[in-house]
Structure formats: structure tokens, C-alpha cells
Amino acid sequence: MTAPETTVLSFVRHAHSPYVPNAERTRGLSRRGRRDAARVTAHLADVADVVVTSPYERARATVEGVADAADVPLVVDEDLRERELTDDHVEDFDSAVEHLWANPTASHPGGESHAEAQSRGVAAIERLVEAYPNRHVVVGTHGTLMALVLNAYDSRYGYEFWTGLTMPDVYEATFVNGEFAGVARTWVPADDEQPAADD
């Protein structure tokens, strides 16, 4: 009897990054974020077979140390980028995001709907599961996209889950023969890590 193919994905929500207007792709980590990225490296370096990351600097900077420490490839995947909220400044971020969770096909001017972001995120994950059978893949990404992807497999991962994520955070999803088999949090936050429900 053939053994099942199992792929494990450790989704890493990026470490703390100070908000900078119009710098979604380039804003990096804060001092605290760099410290926590080192903890992410210690947490995942022993299990990583490959690291795949969003192109956004804050996500890449959170997981690139894992690739270096484990001496494994670091691959950039554009489809792991954060959901594009809008092409302009939002006065009330929390209300704007809550509206999208309640209305998945809605979008703000110049932005993506949650349905659109979820679709591309799930497509990226399915490619990884197919490409890396029996491997442990570290996935550097963002809070909203991670929540949307997990929500596609299990509806319990929705708005309330998103609001409780910390920066960083790590959730491990298991796929057996290409099918989602479950997810569990593996990150233990430091005492000063509080839920940080921003992008």
C-alpha cells in the first residue's frame, strides 16, 4: 500500500512593521519585528525544506532568516502578497476591513475583494502542495491573506480569527494527498506581543 503524500505548510504572518503610507511593498520591520523574526527563525529552521514568501519586504524579512539558517531555497510568489485594500488612504481602517469580511465580493476603490484575494491565495497554496509533496514549506505572508486562505478550508477562520492574530504568528496546515487535513497554531507569543489586526 502506497504511503500518503503529506505536505505541511507553516503560514507565517509577518512580524511588526511600522505603517508607512504608500509603501506597501517596501516597508520593513521595526526593531521589535527584527527581534521577533529571529524567534521565527529559531522556531522553524529545523523543519523547513523550502521557504516561499510574499514579495512585500515585511513578509520576506520575517522568513528569510529561516531559509538562511536551514540552507534551503527562498522563493518569492507574488500571489502571497497582502489583500490590496484600496489605492488611496482609508480614514477608518477597521470599519473598511470589517465591511469586506461581511461582504466578500465587495471592494473599496482600487482594491481587491476578499473573494478575489482568497482565490489567488488558495491557488498559490494549491501550487505549493502539488510542488512539494512530503515536504515542510514555510510560507511568509500577511494576516488578511492567511486568514482568507484558512477560511477557504475551514469557515471558523474568519473575522474574529483575524482580529486575534499577533505579529508575528504561525499556523501549521497539513495536507494529505492534496486534501486539507487540519491546522494548528504553533507560535507562542512573547509577553509583549498583542493582537495586531492590521496589514
From TrEMBL:
CDD domains in the record: HP_PGM_like
GO molecular function: phosphatase activity
InterPro entries per record: His_Pase_superF_clade-1, His_PPase_superfam, PGM_Phosphatase
An example Gene Ontology CC term for this record: cytoplasm
Pfam families noted in UniProt: His_Phos_1
SUPFAM superfamilies on file: Phosphoglycerate mutase-like (SSF53254)
PANTHER family tied to this protein: ADENOSYLCOBALAMIN_ALPHA-RIBAZOLE PHOSPHATASE, BROAD-SPECIFICITY PHOSPHATASE YOR283W-RELATED
Protein name: Phosphoglycerate mutase family protein
